[in-house]
Structure prediction request, 158 residues.
Amino acid sequence: MNRSINSIFRIAVVGLSLSGCGTLSPRPDPSRFFTLSSLPQVAQASLKNSTGLEKMFLGIGPVKFPGYLDRQEIVVRSGQNRLEVSETDRWAEPLQENFSRVLSENLALLLNTDLIIVYPWSPANRPRYYVEIEVLRFEANRERDGQLFARWSVLDGA
Prediction:
């Protein structure tokens, strides 16, 4: 009898070990990573040739984001006062840095200048004009359409 209990115990341990391996095996990470992107290269070539503006030294920032966007997960607005944080969709880099960089790339293209710097800048390298931005809302809606609401000001650095 002692022998049969010992055999049953061994079979149970082996069975539990094998079933545990199946349920505890690593699963693929379902995360998807996103970034903002600047205007396409095709638009860049046509816009650079068509603008006749004098090159200016422009600063971008400071750019302020609401606290609910200070996270890696992408936020979706599901109602007027309700936000949902995605379990799988994430920003590939901090949103504020990505936003500032893409904005500076787009303005460089549209203004035909490469004299754009992103805040913070040194007092010795202060731009002639700078754009302050306060992002009020930046998220997708239920239909997954991106929505950006922001206040911005162009200020004279002098």
